[in-house]
Amino acid sequence: MHRNAMPSQASDQAETHGRANTSGQVRFNGQPGTGGLPGPGSQLPAAGGRARADDQAEVNGQADGIPEATVARLPVYLRALYGLAERGISTVASEELAAAAGVNSAKLRKDLSHLGSYGIRGVGYDVDYLVYQVSRTLGLTQDWPVVIVGAGNLGRALANYGGFVSRGFTISAMLDCDTAIVGSRIATLTVRHVDELEALVARHKVAIGVIATPAGSAQAVCDRLVSAGVTSILNFAPLVLNVPEGVDVRKVDLSIELQILAFHAQRRSAARPESRPAGGPGRSRGGNPRTAGARSTPQVTPELAAKG
Where is 144: in which H helix or E strand? Predict the structure, then answer.
């Protein structure tokens, strides 16, 4: 079956010379990006210079059996690890990393065990090496060309976001069908006509397609991306896409997220007790709040009003 999902998160740890710089790029032996990272078939340094079999398997793309829920949490761990690295923290306890990621420590340790990372008792995890492990598992040790279809407000915001490059994603092209927009510059890109989609996908070897179009045209755009060979799609359109087996779709619908938040806010509001005791501190007998420091005003009765 295809995937069309909504996002909603043994031995001592091997030592390494991996480093993460403040821009978020993975470094290995001082080299940024993919240039200094081991390629397929190369060996990873481990404690005492030994190459571990599970490390070698992961580099060769043979790391199987990681639950989808764990995969969904790995980017959250990576973001927390980048924050620690930027603060100059070299080791982190599971409890501290779990708190930064918003999960419990037992779940974090179980998730990281799928990567072959067990930490060192009494020391914790090496931050730089864990950045490398998580990045490698997520496939972020190489650049991923991305095409954005839809140059409206959302598409423009995505194109201008600088965080993609530092995480290994390159916006290679931006497309739209509006002739008033085609040819304009957005960030570093010139908007191309959507008729060029297949040619641009082939030219830039696009791996991921982002759909930021209205719902009415999203399925047709998706079909063209799939036909062009794109098998990973990020969908911002308010529509469930139909895709063939072997195509992964991640759906981001901000209105749905807001509706879920509204549901929880309503429940909290309904469950909140009305704490307004009669005659309580700071309130008159009639239940009206008094102004702090104000003098009490005599109540005007009909008799007093007639005398006045």
Answer: strand 144-149
Lowest mean pLDDT of 17-21, 206-210, 278-282, name the range.
Answer: 17-21
Residue with tokens 């799939």: 226
Element (H, E) at 81: helix 68-86
> Which CATH number is correct for 3-138, 3.90.1640.10, 1.10.3720.10, 1.10.10.10, 1.10.620.20?
1.10.10.10
Reported as a single tens digit per residue, the pLDDT across 284-301 is: 444 454 444 444 444 544
SS3 letters across 85-118: HHCCCCEECHHHHHHHHCCCHHHHHHHHHCCCCC
The string of pLDDT tens digits covering residues 147-169 is 999 999 999 999 999 888 878 89
Strand partners, 5: 250
The C-alpha atoms of residue 251 and residue 227 are separated, in whole angstroms, by: 19
20 forms bridges with which residues in the sheet? 26
How far the first Cα of the chain sits from its last, in Å, is 86
Asked if 33 and 136 touch (Cβ cutoff 8 Å), the reply is: no
Concatenated DSSP letters for 137-192? HHTTTS-EEEEEE--SHHHHHHHH-THHHHTTEEEEEEEES-TTTTT-EETTEE-E
